[in-house]
Design brief:
The structure holds 2 protein chains of 2 kinds. In chain A, about 15% of the residues lie in helices and about 25% in strands. By secondary structure, chain A is of the alpha/beta class. In chain A, strands 1-2-3-4-5-6-7-8-9-11-10 form an 11-stranded mixed sheet, with helices on one face. Chain A has 4 helices and 11 strands, in the order βαβββββββββααβα. Chain A has a domain at about 135-235. By secondary structure, chain B is an alpha/beta fold. In chain B, about 35% of the residues lie in helices and about 15% in strands. The chains are: A alpha/beta, B alpha/beta.
């Protein structure tokens, strides 16, 4: 297990140290005292596990492909943004735009998420154990967005083919978002994901998979149609 | 009997437009760029003042006049080195056909210049055929891929574009083919409305952090460009410089687009002439003129436009529409197919339909075949070389051994507006009509 003490070091120095350890074939790297710095552990393309022992700033784990990252605190805006594959686990809560534009991989948040969770996501899985804020899933394209707690306003607004699941209450649905039925095989799949990624104590405190509400796009915004003028008026 | 008088306000065309809206219930969406007929200040309002007695010209066809262009000297370890100051702007594979993207890449490479990806990400064949490739990071993040970003020679963080600042891209369903849908992670055939805002930052302070992320992701090797649609250029350029841009791109209202509501193309943004003037003032006022490079885009047609932009303060120009015209856009061939989509040669702005008669803005395999990649590349290369020669001719006549030495003093303004905008004396006076 390789260790980096980030105290008093710049983002560039910390990321260089991580890259150097990866080049020296380290598979397990711990960064102590991350001090909520921005842009830590971005663009890691190797199959390594990076542990950030504390809270981090913006874009932690952004643009990664294949790495596994544990943030043992909270994360600022855009955690894991644009990742292609890998896993980012946040033990605390996350700021706005968490998992923005991810194209694959898994983002797990043990706490709550702020606004625009999974905005523009293009694949992968986003799983939040707590609640999420305003406009989660905005313009999301593919993948799964799972919120075990309550969802904020304008949930799943203007989506393409992302599938959302909410365990708690939805403050209100966004434009063109509709609640869809969930069959038993889908519930089983959801349960598998929940029990795979959430620690057992956290999983036990959350609703059963079959009690989640499924939300998808109503597809009314997929193609321009003047008959839907009222929707477009609000949507554009 | 005298001719019946028609309204200048409700002219025949306006009456037709209102009635079309009333019948269809739809606003107009189209491609190309502004079709405004009323004039606005342009590079045509400036004229060069070649040497006579006060200055000595260089021999037009013989003496050396450098066109070498270096971009990204501020922070990047590997600035871009181009042979010429005319570059190909970002246009997406999606808006453009595969053949068009590859022809642009090959043509730019052959001329020693660069080309840029676009909404939807990098086409592998584009990288293979480019000499210098700029990777655009757009609000939509369609096709975003760290491996492609690492293969690029520069990153362009796009905030807006001149044809439609403040709004996202648009690709109508007819062009969202299976391949394009797959590349962009979208369902096939949707009318794709790209976001106007980046998903993970909003204002200029967050953008500082985003720029640092892009630097970290590319190990501080390649230049970071920030591209702006020309609106509040003076303030925006200062904010982009503060955010750490190596290069700032300002795209004026004459800029083109594959599809956008017509209202944006006609009624938003600053003319390119005003954009370059404001951008230069902004960089000078914060003391980074020359340190941060400036690229100007939007309706640049020939060497004269490019030379004037350079003389006003740009380090290089982007061309988009002109490069497509080199590929036969609006050429009188396949005329029946122009008419079939309600267009005509020289009056086609129907890129949004995906039925481009000359194979440029289409995803239809049969139409695309009409654009031969090798011939297209040769035409793009020729245009870039001729534009460069034109810039050199003007520069030599103004006594400059490097095109980048062109300066505002090499020009006079033909209109009061141009004088006021550019701070250049009006012809026939020695006065600058500036506030």
């Amino acid at each position: 297990m390789a260790e980096i003490d980030a105290a008093g070091r710049s983002t560039r120095e910390i990321n260089s140290a991580i890259r150097r350890l990866i080049a020296e074939s380290s598979k397990e790297i711990t960064v102590r005292n991350p001090g909520a710095r921005h842009n830590l552990a971005v663009a890691i393309l190797e199959d390594v596990h990076v542990r950030l022992a504390g809270s981090v700033g913006y874009y932690c784990g952004g643009l990664i492909d294949g790495a596994s990252i544990d943030i043992e605190g909270s994360a600022g805006w855009g955690v894991a943004e644009s990742m292609l594959s890998g896993t980012v686990r946040v033990h605390g809560s996350v700021g706005s735009g968490a998992a923005a534009a991810i194209r694959g991989g898994t983002v797990v948040v043990h706490g709550d998420a702020a606004a625009r969770l999974g905005v523009s996501m293009k694949g992968g899985t986003v799983l939040v154990a707590g609640n999420c804020g305003y406009m989660a899933g905005f313009m999301a394209q593919k993948g799964r967005l799972i919120v075990c707690g309550n969802a904020g306003e304008a949930f799943a607004d203007s989506m393409y083919a992302t599938i959302c699941y909410v365990g708690g209450k939805i403050a209100n649905l966004g434009i063109d978002a509709v609640v869809a039925p969930m069959d038993s095989s889908e519930a089983q799949q959801l349960e598998k994901t929940l029990s795979c990624y959430l620690p057992p104590s956290l999983r036990r405190a959350k609703p059963a998979a079959a009690d989640f509400k499924k939300v998808v796009a109503g597809r009314k915004l997929w193609n321009f149609d003047k008959r839907d003028w009222r929707i477009w008026q609000e949507a554009l | 009997m005298s001719e019946l008088q028609k309204s200048g306000i409700f002219a025949p065309k306006v009456i037709e437009e209102i009635q079309a809206k009333a019948e269809s219930g739809l606003y107009s969406i189209r491609g190309f760029g502004t079709l405004r007929e009323r004039r606005w200040p342009t590079f045509d309002d400036l004229t060069f003042l070649p040497c006579s007695l006060t200055r000595i010209p260089l021999e037009g066809y013989r003496e050396k006049c450098s066109t070498k262009t270096v971009l990204g000297t501020r922070f990047a370890r590997k600035p871009i080195q181009l042979d010429i100051p005319v570059m190909i702007t970002g246009m997406s594979w999606g808006a453009l056909s595969y053949n068009a993207k590859v022809a642009l890449a090959k043509g730019a490479a052959a001329a020693g210049s660069s080309n840029t990806t676009g909404d939807g990400g990098m086409l592998p064949a584009e990288r293979e055929n480019s000499r210098t490739l700029i990777y655009e990071v757009l609000p939509s993040r369609y096709g975003i891929n760290i491996h492609h970003m690492r293969m690029a020679d520069a990153i362009e963080l796009t905030i807006g574009q001149g044809a439609k600042p403040g709004t996202g891209g648009l690709l109508l369903g007819s062009k969202v083919s299976d391949r394009i849908a797959e590349q962009r992670d979208l369902p096939t055939g949707v009318d794709q409305r790209s976001p106007a805002r980046h998903p993970d930052f909003l204002g200029p302070d967050d953008m500082i952090i985003k720029v640092e992320e892009l630097r970290e992701a590319t190990d501080w090797q390649v230049p970071i460009f920030i591209k702006l649609g020309a609106t509040r250029v003076y303030d925006d350029v200062k904010l982009a410089a503060k955010a750490g841009a190596d290069v700032i791109v300002v795209d004026g209202m004459e800029g083109g687009t594959g599809a956008s509501p017509a209202i944006f193309q006609e009624h938003t943004g600053l003319p390119t002439l005003a954009a370059v003037s404001e951008a230069r003032s902004a960089l000078e006022d914060i003391g980074v003129y020359g340190e941060v490079q400036l690229i100007i885009a939007g309706g640049i047609r020939d060497g004269a436009d490019a030379a004037k932009a350079i003389a006003l303060g740009a380090d290089a120009c982007y061309i988009g529409t002109a490069a497509l015209i080199a590929l036969n856009c609006n050429k009188p061939i396949y005329e029946d197919d122009y008419h079939a989509i309600g267009a005509a040669p020289h009056a086609c702005h129907h890129c949004h339909t995906g039925r481009c008669p000359v194979g440029i803005t289409t995803q239809d395999p049969d139409l695309m075949k009409r654009l031969d990649v090798e011939q297209g590349a040769e035409r793009v290369r020729n245009l870039l070389q001729v534009m460069t020669a034109e810039i050199q001719m003007l520069a030599r006549a103004c006594g400059k051994s490097d095109v980048h030495h062109l300066e505002p003093e090499d020009m006079a303004a033909l209109t009061l507006e141009a004088s006021a905008i550019c701070g250049i004396p009006l012809v026939g006076t020695r006065k600058v009509f500036r506030h």
